UniProtKB/TrEMBL annotation:
Binding annotation for K(+): N53, D127, S163
Keywords: ATP-binding, Isomerase, Lyase, Metal-binding, Multifunctional enzyme, NAD, NADP, Nucleotide-binding, Potassium
Recorded family membership: Belongs to the NnrE/AIBP family. Belongs to the NnrD/CARKD family.
Organism the protein comes from: Streptomyces longispororuber
Reactions it catalyzes: (6S)-NADHX + ADP = AMP + phosphate + NADH + H(+); (6R)-NADPHX = (6S)-NADPHX; (6S)-NADPHX + ADP = AMP + phosphate + NADPH + H(+); (6R)-NADHX = (6S)-NADHX
Subunit structure: Homotetramer.
Cofactor note: Binds 1 potassium ion per subunit.
Protein name per UniProt: Bifunctional NAD(P)H-hydrate repair enzyme
CDD domains named among the record's database cross-references: YXKO-related
PROSITE patterns: YJEF_C_3 (PS51383), YJEF_N (PS51385)
Domain YjeF C-terminal: 226-485
Amino acid sequence: MEDVRAAERALMARVPDGALMQRAAAGLAAACGQVLGKVYGARVALLVGSGDNGGDALYAGARLARRGAGVTAVLLAPERAHAGGLAALRAAGGRAVDGSGPAEGVGGGAGADAALGVVARADLVVDGVVGIGGKGGLRPRAAELARAAEESRAVVVAVDLPSGVDADTGEVRGAAVRADVTVTFGACKPGLLVDPAREYAGALRFVDIGLGPELAAYDPVVEAFQYADVDRLLPVPGAESDKYRRGVVGVVAGSARYPGAAVLAVAGALRGGAGAVRYVGPAADAVLARFPETLVSAGPPARAGRVQAWAAGPGLGDDGDRLRDVVAADVPVLIDADGLRLADAAAVRKRVAPTLLTPHAGEAAALLGTSREEVESGRLEAVRELAGRYAATVLLKGSTTVVAGPDGTGAVRVNPTGTPWLATAGSGDVLSGLAGALLAAGLGARDAGATGAFLHGLAARLAADGAPVAAQDVADALPAAWRDVRRG
Ligand SMILES: NC(=O)C1=CN([C@@H]2O[C@H](COP(=O)(O)OP(=O)(O)OC[C@H]3O[C@@H](n4cnc5c(N)ncnc54)[C@H](O)[C@@H]3O)[C@@H](O)[C@H]2O)[C@@H](O)CC1
Ligand SMILES: Nc1ncnc2c1ncn2[C@@H]1O[C@H](COP(=O)(O)OP(=O)(O)O)[C@@H](O)[C@H]1O
Ligand SMILES: [K+]
């Protein structure tokens, strides 16, 4: 968050005192009004910590009180609550109670734990406990109030980010607020885009407080592709194209035991924009039965004929020889699944052409010598670490798919599409073929990974539409996803 803080400091030097907080509070109050529908007569509880995050909540509370809401601030640290915000709230007819804990008694005068009562009766709870100044999970008292908010029927709106989550990494190492909506200011914090924190944030609302020009001086730490970014990268054939110019992708997947992985990887590859798909391996019959347009070859990859990229690994079993050939090739290579286990790290590092590794959390954990849980709780760190170790681009799959470039610099791409229905056997094989075809069509490894993940996630959403899907359905929906992107 250093970049956001520095941009705020720079902007604050240019605008009147308190102007940024007023912009933030106005956006926050407007979002709360929309969530409530009717502000007049609504019961609003503000959870207010000791910093400016609490200040935002208090000023927004004042605006809601002026529109007729009954607003009560629960002050977690009454002596350190934002003085201006508290005065504004009181002037607007709101009130405040001491929320620091039942042992200290109350300022609101309504029994030993008035604060919990205020939260329990609220229609809307505004979480202003901590923002980007927070360290670690919620302290016990704040955690107790957050739990009460979760158990109440109130809608929970987090100010800037759900208190307790890490704004930089998306980690949630202790108790945290579970929000229905998060209203974030100036810049979308990286953590808000990445699980597990993303889960806690609910729906995201962005409020522009004018940081844009100041932030432009900093490179983003993470970025999320939008439709237009993907549209720009899709390899669309021109009038002069032929199948070779569009690119040939080689698929090295499947085994006698897992022929299906080959079929699914080819299914993805055929929808990836390359001109032809070459399959190399023992599942050629199964592949041809489903996709007669595939060029198959029985020998080793090195003798299969020219390709512009390889996608290798799904269902490969223990066939290290086929993988070695691919790693030694001088064209871009995607390595997935069994291939990740078989690949020699030193040989991967030595490659000159781009390499894209596509592990899920379990495979990433095995490569890093850590646990799956550790990878899932800190995806950004895990993907950067792997990319550094292998000097390769890494696409880490999962509930949030993230893509990091080989040199550790540049933003990590966070995929905004997808659905938990995608967690179905073989869907990763489809992604391998798809991203491999994008490499063959000429996209760089980071672009192929991010574009592939975007289309794959979008296809899954279109195919699932609220019901279970199989991996083949995802592959079948890729053309629809493609069209969706091209139409914007
Ligand atoms: N700086 C600016 O220009 C702007 C800042 N804004 C708001 O200000 C926030 C940042 O404010 P601050 O820097 O004052 O910091 P915060 O309000 O995020 O939190 C810092 C305070 O919380 C306490 N704290 C830290 N970790 C805690 C934990 N785990 N449990 C309980 N208390 C904890 C600290 O002791 C400190 O007093 C932003 O998130 C945003 O909401 C907005 O008003 C927009 C403008
Ligand atoms: N909870 C989830 N939410 C969204 N997508 C998920 C979730 N779990 C898995 N996925 C996606 O599903 C695919 C599964 O791939 P993978 O783990 O390689 O499975 P397989 O090896 O069976 O093909 C990946 O694209 C991954 O990002
Ligand atoms: K907050």
